[in-house]
Amino acid sequence: MVFSFNTTYEDLDSDLYCKVAPKDIDNPEILVINDGLCADIGLDTSELNATILAGQDLTEESIAQAYAGHQYGSFTLLGDGRAMILGEHVHEDNRYDIQLKGSGRTPYSGRGDGNATVSSMLREYLYSYAMQNLNIKTSRSLAVIETEETVERRRTEPGAILVRVMNSHIRYGTFQYVAAQISNELPRFTDYVIDRHYPELNAKDRTYLEFFDAVMQSSIEMVIDWLRIGFIHGVMNTDNMSIDGETFDYGPCAFMNYYDEEAVFSSIDKHGRYAFGNQRPILRWNLERFAESLQPLCAQSALTYDELEGKLDEFEDRFDAQYYTMMRRKLGINSDGEEELVDEFVEWLRKSSADYTNTFLELEMPGTFDDPAFASTEFERLRNKLTAVGLDAELMQEANPRYILRNYLAEEALDEYIETGDLSKFKRLLTVLKDPYTSTDLGSRFQQPPSREFDTEYVTYCNT
Asked: Is 239 a catalytic residue?
């Protein structure tokens, strides 16, 4: 058997999932497969084929999960409408959800067709691959399988299935669903999640309180990492917030080029709710909703809601502490403090709207980029101030990638495949993104931002 499945989620209340089967697919074709991920989770690539990866040769029933979520602030009951978990694959005491996206309708599909376009699945593969190699905790893409069907979204494209791997797909919204629909199951469900993701907490006196604290901490670390590399998730609904701090659901996401805290690239985020600079306050808002979903535990355990609110009250100070630690590393400051200098530098970024990624490379290696912003007297003044307190090259090299996934290069690669069937640009991007902290070609096109006009007009879509 290729996968070592042991699906413990099926031991939970049956209201939490539905048993489903992937749609029948004729002549599936593997477009790309992640050999490194296969090795990490103990899969032999010689045993994998498109039929197995597309869920056509199952050894057990798949499940679609139910969950809820605040979508743009409005609470909704939801579920996997175009995704299903083949099973929980166990390798060396680690457990991984093997999930298919675009594998057909489920009882949660509503008016959706359960399908996915090849460009959206290749796009998620690219972005999750980039995030993994940027050292961000993330879902990972095992493979993209093209199907013979056609799918209509903004344009008509071939259909595709993404094989996604995560520690689990449990989210804030799963807890919201349990609290709203089967609140008597909340202690059992919470115990299950703790055993699966935070087993060390079982030795604590205040296990449920420590659980909330651990989720808040993992979420803060995740968003701090997004800010470090200029990533905009684009749809930070509570149903897209992992209980384990894994970045996932790469729909209307993008990397920020020119520094702009109001940067939004999602076609549906009309009011900038999930803009780059709003990701911190939205995380706090989402954690408040998560705390509310745990409220039924207060009547069934020693936990009190005042204790949860007490943890929430720590959010700002904890986020600040980790934010300034991260920014000091980006700026090469090898000592504590210097918050005012960090703030001064960020204010320069706001005013100059310089390219975020290249700014820190230019600090480390002056003269790398021909950008008037880096020739300004203000930039030189700040660089001299930073030199006086550090500019530690080792710190900077660990914190600042040489390459991010430039959105325009991703679109070029996807368009090339749709128009010509050629994956050359796509595979070249994978090669560059394999080691984004090592520069082999300073000043290469992979380090160049797009025109400001492109950034102004660029839009990403959910593609559901």
From this structure: yes
